[in-house]
Design a protein that fits this description.
Elements (H helix, E strand, L loop, with lengths): L14 E3 L9 H19 L3 E3 L3 H8 L2 H20 L1 H21 L3 H13 L9 H4 L7 H7 L2 H9 L9 H5 L21 H15 L11 H10 L7 H19 L1
Parallel strand pairs: 1-2
Helix pairs in contact: 3-4, 4-5, 4-10, 10-11, 11-12
Amino acid sequence: EGQKILPDGNLTISIGVSTYPQKASTDNELIKFADDACYRAKFLRKNRVESYFSVLEELQKDVKEPEREIIASIRTLIAVINAKDKYTYRHVERVVYYCNIIADRLVLDEKQKKDFIYAAYLHDIGKINISEDILMKVDQLTDEEWEVLKKHPQNAVEIIGNIEPLKDAVPIILQHHERFDGTGYPHQLKGDQIAFLARMLTVIDSFDAMTSIRPYQTKKSYAKAIAELKKCSGTQFDPQTVDIFAGTIESIVIAKFS
């Protein structure tokens, strides 16, 4: 009774699962991780069961024993950023999801895909050094505040730069706010001077920012965000990466969410 009034005429159920002690070490972590997995199930694919997964857990498998302490510190830093900026965590989750889709579309090898995903997960970690007042500001940033915010790619590299398995993710993170026309930051790189996966991350990062609720902007539809990417193709964005991402989103993601 009433089934016909539900979306697509069906009831959908999204479930998140975590386990103790394999994933979570406390009861609070168990609930949080299950909630994170449920969010992923609801937002990313819908009507499915998702098990809790952490990019950092994968990274810990790749590092040597001395570096595992650094990874634990990074986990703490990410928790602090999430507490300061409630938009960052969900943003990172979605960016990682889109990067996974694009990595498969590009048929990246295992090493390239890991570098891309690690960069996606850690690209905003440099915001740890930026005050909540700046991160959450609704009004336009002052010139001084903007200069502080622009330092977050370099801050990120300082945090992760000495971790051997992340060395190839460093250029992607450092360059993800460079612009194709050379007017980006921090080094005003232009065109092919910017690493290809950094150019791709720029497109993905911008697309999710446009399609998410933020304190300083109105949320765009997927179609309007794609149109904006195409409008800025050749100036802010690399035309090749825009074409790849837009084609993928239009054929895969928009179909799922329509």
